[in-house]
Design brief:
CATH architecture of the largest domain in chain A: 3-Layer(aba) Sandwich
Radius of gyration of chain A: 21 Å
Number of domains of chain A: 2
Strand order of the largest sheet of chain A: 3-2-1-4-11-10-5-6-9-7-8
CATH class of the largest domain in chain A: Alpha Beta
Largest interface: A-B, 63 and 63 residues
Low-confidence stretches of chain A: none
Helix content of chain A: 40-55%
CATH superfamily of the largest domain in chain A: Isopropylmalate Dehydrogenase
Oligomer: homodimer
Largest sheet of chain A: 11 strands, mixed
CATH topology of the largest domain in chain A: Isopropylmalate Dehydrogenase
Order of helices and strands of chain A: EHEHHEHHEHEEHEHEEHHHEEHH
Number of helices of chain A: 13
Mean pLDDT of chain A: 90
Structural class of chain A: alpha/beta
Shape of chain A: globular
Chain lengths: ~350, ~350
C-alpha cells in the first residue's frame, strides 16, 4: 500500500484559552503552508461552524466530530480521565489510537492531556517513560530540552531514553544533523551531581557511535546554546524552564518601567523600538509553541493554553514534521542502534 | 563573662579571583560602617603587607597569620581537604572551630570551602545537612533560597530543616518579621511533585505556630517575590538559580546589542541610560554577595569568587549580622519550638 499523500490531524477544538477561534485560525494558517493537511475537529458543532464558515479553504479539508463535552483547565487529570470519555480531548486522542488520525494537537489542560495520552496511546516499545519535550531560543539558535515535567523523578535509564528521543526531535523538528547532547547538572566536572546523572553519563559516554554526548551542562549554559539537546528529569527541567521564563518576564517589565520613567526615556524608548522588536521576535514563544509528549505509541502535541492562531499553527507544524519524519520508527531504530553500540563497547572493554 | 564588644572575623585573604586586593578593600570598607570589627587575615604576609599598608585604619584592627599555602580554583575538594591543612582557607576555618574568630569569610574554591567547613565545623546539633543559602532580588524586594547546591539529593526532613534555617536567615539578614515560606515544585496544586516535597509539605503544614508556610511555589514565581523563603533540594535550587542568572545575562546582552545596532538606537540608549542604570543597580549581585553554608557548628560565609571590594564588604556584613544575631542559637530554638509545635498538633489530631 502506498503511503497516503495526506497528513490527517485530530484537533481538540475546545481546548485552550482562545478556543475554538485559535484552533480554527491556526489550522487555516497551517494549510496555506502545507496543502497536504487534513483535519478532524473535535468539538461543539454549533460553536465551531460560525468560525469555520469564515475559512472556506479550511472547511473544505476539515471534518467535524461533534461532542458537547470538553475538559476545563480546572479539571483534575484523574477526573478528566475517568469522566471525560466523550470530551473533545479524549475523542481526539482516540482518533490517533484507532488510526483515523496521524497525530493529535490540543491546547487544553496539560495534566489531563498527559494522563489521557498516556492511558490511550501507551508508551512506545523500548520507552519506559514518555517525556515532555520542547525547543527554546538560545544565543546560538535553539535547543531542545526534556523532560519538562512529565516525570518528577527519573532513574538513569529514563535519562538515557530521553537522550535518544531528544536526539531524534532535534534532527526532525530542528534539522540539526548531529545534535550535541548534555545532561543538566549542578557542575560540569565529572564527579558532580546525584547518582542518576552520574550513571546516565557513564552509559551515554560509551554510546560513541549513536549519540554525540558532550557531558554535563550547568543551568546558566542552556541559554548560551552550549548543547543542542539538554537532558534532565522532569522536576529539574520544569524548574529550569520556569525560572528562565520568570526572569525573562521580570526583565522585560523592568525595561518597560525604565522606558516609561520620564519623557526623555520615553523618547529614548522610541529610538530603540525597532531593535527591541527584533529582540522580542527572537525570544517569541509563539515561534517555539508545540511541546510534545514524546515516547508514546502515537504523536501527541501540546500547544500553550494561551496560544493564538499563529502559535497554534506552529504546534500543527511540529505535529506535521513528526508525522512526515516517522518519529516513532526513528526512535525505535536509534534505540536499537544504541543497544548494539553499548554491547560492542562493553565487549571491547572486556 | 560579658560578651566581647568586638566581632572577630577570620578572612581567607588568598581566596578569590581578585585576592588579596578585594579582601583588603572589602575589610576596609566594612570597618567604616562597623568599628566593632576585628580581622585575622590568613595568607602570605609578603603579599598582603603592601596592600594593607595603604589602609592604616584597617591595619590597626587586623592581625596577619602568615601561610604561603593556599587553595586554587582547580583543586578538587577531596585534595584540598587532605593536602591543604596549612592553606589560608583551612587555617581561617580552624580559627572559628577553636574560638579565635566568630566567623570566617572566603571567596575561594566553593567545593573545597564546603568540604573543609563541613569537616572542621561539623553540622550543628539538630541539623543533619548544612545547606547553601543566599538572598536574591525579586520584583517585591528580596527572597532567600536554599539549598543552592550543597546537597544534590535531599529527603523530606532535610527540606524541613532548610525551612527552619531559611526562616532564621530571612529574619536576621533581611529583617523580615514573619517570613513566608514555600517549597519549590513543578506545580502549585497539592498533589504535584515528588514524594520528598509532598512529605515535607505535609509536615510544614502542621507547623502553624512556628513557620509561616504557604505551600508550593513554581519556578517562575520566585522572581515575582511570592515567597520570602524558597526551600528546595540542592540540585533543583542550583539549577533554578543558574537558569535565572543565565537568562538575565542573555537578555542584558541582547539589550546591549539592540542599542548598538544603529546610531539612532545608540542615541535612544543614551536617553534611557539613567533608568537603565537604576534597573542594573537593583539587580546588582554585588549587593547580594555572601552566600552562607548554614547549619554548621560555626559561621562560614562564601563570597563570589569574582567579588571586588564592594561585594566582599557585603559578604563581611552578612557574617557580622549572623554573629550579632546569634544565628546558631536561634536555629536551635526554632528547631525546638518546631518539634513542640508538631507534637502538639499531632496530639490534637489523635
Amino acid at each position: 500500500m502506498a503511503p497516503s499523500p495526506f497528513i490527517t490531524l485530530a484537533l481538540d477544538a475546545m481546548g485552550g484559552d482562545n478556543a475554538p477561534l485559535s484552533v480554527i485560525e491556526g489550522a487555516s494558517l497551517a494549510i496555506k503552508h502545507n496543502p497536504s493537511l487534513r483535519f478532524i475537529l473535535f468539538g461543539d458543532q454549533g460553536r465551531l461552524m460560525p468560525f469555520l464558515e469564515n475559512y472556506p479553504a479550511l472547511q473544505a479539508v476539515s471534518q467535524i466530530v461533534h461532542t458537547q463535552d470538553y475538559i476545563t483547565n480546572e479539571d483534575k487529570p484523574s477526573v478528566a480521565l475517568r469522566q471525560g470519555r466523550q470530551s473533545s480531548m479524549r475523542l481526539a486522542v482516540n482518533a490517533v489510537a484507532d488510526g483515523t488520525a496521524d497525530a493529535v494537537v490540543s491546547a487544553g489542560n496539560t495534566g489531563a492531556y498527559m494522563a489521557i495520552a498516556k492511558f490511550v496511546l501507551k508508551a512506545m516499545t523500548g520507552i519506559s517513560r514518555p517525556a515532555f519535550v520542547a525547543s527554546f531560543p538560545t544565543a546560538k539558535g535553539s535547543c531542545v530540552m526534556l523532560d519538562l515535567g512529565a516525570n518528577v523523578s527519573c532513574d538513569s535509564s529514563n535519562l538515557v531514553e530521553f537522550a535518544v528521543m531528544g536526539d531524534i526531535y532535534a534532527r526532525d523538528v530542528m534539522g540539526i544533523a548531529n545534535p550535541t547532547i548534555a545532561l543538566l547538572n549542578v557542575g560540569a566536572e565529572e564527579m558532580k551531581g546525584n547518582v542518576e546523572v552520574q550513571t546516565a553519563a557513564a552509559i551515554l559516554k560509551r554510546a560513541t557511535r549513536t549519540l554525540n554526548f558532550q557531558g554535563f551542562i550547568e543551568g546558566d549554559r542552556i541559554i548560551k546554546g552550549e548543547a543542542d539537546v539538554v537532558v534532565t528529569d522532569g522536576f529539574s527541567g520544569n524548574i529550569a524552564l520556569k525560572a528562565s521564563e520568570g526572569m525573562a518576564t521580570f526583565m522585560t517589565s523592568l525595561l518597560k518601567e525604565s522606558i516609561h520613567s520620564s519623557w526623555i526615556s520615553k523618547l529614548g524608548g522610541l529610538l530603540i523600538l525597532k531593535p527591541l522588536q527584533r529582540m522580542k521576535d527572537r525570544m517569541n514563544p509563539k515561534l517555539h509553541n508545540g511541546a510534545m509528549l514524546i515516547g508514546l505509541g502515537g504523536i501527541a502535541i501540546k500547544s500553550h493554553g494561551g496560544a493564538d492562531g499563529v502559535a497554534y499553527a506552529n504546534a500543527i507544524k511540529v505535529a506535521t514534521q513528526m508525522v512526515s519524519h516517522g518519529l516513532q520508527k526513528q526512535i525505535e531504530e536509534k534505540l536499537h542502534a544504541l543497544s548494539l553500540d553499548l554491547a560492542e563497547n562493553a565487549e571491547k572493554n572486556e
